[in-house]
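Format notes (please read before filing issues)

Several people have asked whether sequences and structure tokens are stored in separate files. They are not. Every record keeps both together, in the order shown below: the sequence lines, then the token lines. Line labels are part of the format and must not be stripped during preprocessing.
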Amino acid sequence: MSSHTAHTDLKLIGKLILEGDLICETGLHIGAGKGSLEIGGADNPVIKDAFGRPYVPGSSLRGKLRSLLEQSSGLAAPSELVYLSKRRGQEVRIHQSDRADDFVCVLFGRNPGRMERVTGEPLDSTNATPARLTVYDAPLDIESITPAMRENLDDELTEVKSENAIDRITSQANPRTLERVPAGARFRIRMVLDVLCPQDRGLLARLLEGLRLLEDDALGGGGSRGSGRVRFAGFRLAWRGRSFYAAGAAETELAAGSDLSGLQTLAGQDGFDETLAE
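Then the structure lines:
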């Protein structure tokens, strides 16, 4: 939980800019949906931009971070979850509460209204809060797909992984194919964390915790079958106080070329909060 209260005043103090590399340790599959199926292509293509290059949607990365933080904080219990969708076979359950000090809702935002809980009485939320975290789409660094890698790829930038589902009674194989961005590919990530009150300064540590959790989890589809292992490197962290936007003041570079461990050490240092001034 955080130190936010229902009476916390919100006013922009500044923004933390976090940029770095997301590196694929195994093939990465973030699906494009059935509408993108091509004749002769893989059953499950990856999402691509208008130039045909794979990318990591900001919504996929942000949603995974939220899910991991909910789980690690004990907020994925049925009593803490509400339904975003109850369509049969397409249920979507997500954590939301009306507690002012709920750091997940502070970091990712919350909407007011009546929501049905998975268990218990419906949630009648009146405590709307703006999201502090923005996660942008992460473009592929084309240079990370080397000529040696291209020689063994099924497409210019992607590979196709063949899988089989085996019937336990008849032993009949049901083959399927999965398009993946290959191991070694690198994406450039960018996140912006708004600091709207002094209590928000502690949210950076929570964000770094989520990124650290993701390194031992999986991003995208097929995670339990070997896909989606990623790591982060080469972080640059900068602070842009309100004067940066109002008067053209210079930004403050807080870290460059850092890993997650280094950023966590920085965020935990005494006096770090004082560096985030207007």
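For reference, the curators noted about this record: The two ends are 25 Å apart (CA to CA). The chain has a mean pLDDT of 93.
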